[in-house]
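pasting for ref
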Amino acid sequence: MKKKLALALAFALTLSLALTGCGKKDTSDLMGKEGGTSLTFTTGGEQGTYFGFGGVLAGKISEKTSTSVTHIASGGSKANIENLQKGDAQLAFVQTDVGAYGFNGERLFTEETKYDGFSTVANLYMEQVQIVTLDPEIKTVADLKGKTVSVGDAGSGVYFNAQDVLAAYDLDIEKDINATYQSFGNSTEALQDGRIDACFLTAGAPTTAVTSLATTKDVYLVALDDEHIEKLLADSPYYSKAVIPAGGEYKLKEDVTTVAVGAVVVARDDVSDVDVYNFLTGVFGNLEDIKAAHGKGAELSLEFAASYGAVPYHPGAVEFFKENNLEVKGK
């Protein structure tokens, strides 16, 4: 994983330098503050929303502010916290639940492995827990018993979500299903090839990997019923009820009820206040451009960005939100 991360970062930096050589920023027309530096933004798998949307955000911030952001692929939320801890990245996407787990040393993090040296930058959008199958006979979560199911990369946010959803239906992730541990792209490829029966994906819908699958196959999403959603919400405060509407890029025949968590950008505490301020300025000062470039841009709002309570906000973010008449809890 570390070798892959190094190669990805080297490629991204080479590309960044090449683009820089083609033309320097016009500093007279930049937003935010002067004195920004170069940051690495670890996102998610290349066929997931984190990577695609992260690239849009990185490009706009780099174009419009004195801060340059390079986005790279990763294994997801838990890996991103570990990348921050090792200093391999300065910014990261994490799910709201996994951010809290890493900060507090819960679940796959322990008191010894927890990392509290990061702060919140912004809560950006909701990402739905999607249970994808090509088998129309798999209608409920209970139908997954005995099936071969991908539950995301080992230690990813998807894994936690799969574990929680299955537990709400009294299914054990290790005993009641044949669990495999695959990325978004590998999961949908395995579905298409018939090597698995279903897969869990947690990402803002529509998700690239599922959209690609839907171009050649009839895709079904497994719905959660209200009784089990209430049980799940009682056990975890990080989820909320969500609906993925019929039609769309997935070509769904009816609305699908599920649960969702937030997608949060976090930063190491040693990232400068200027860079975090510029990140937020680059995003919320260019909403129309971001909306035009990616569907998730339509979900951005200052109020939602200031809504994450599990991990305190970075001082640069506190300053930005205060200027926009919003109060957030800082470190």
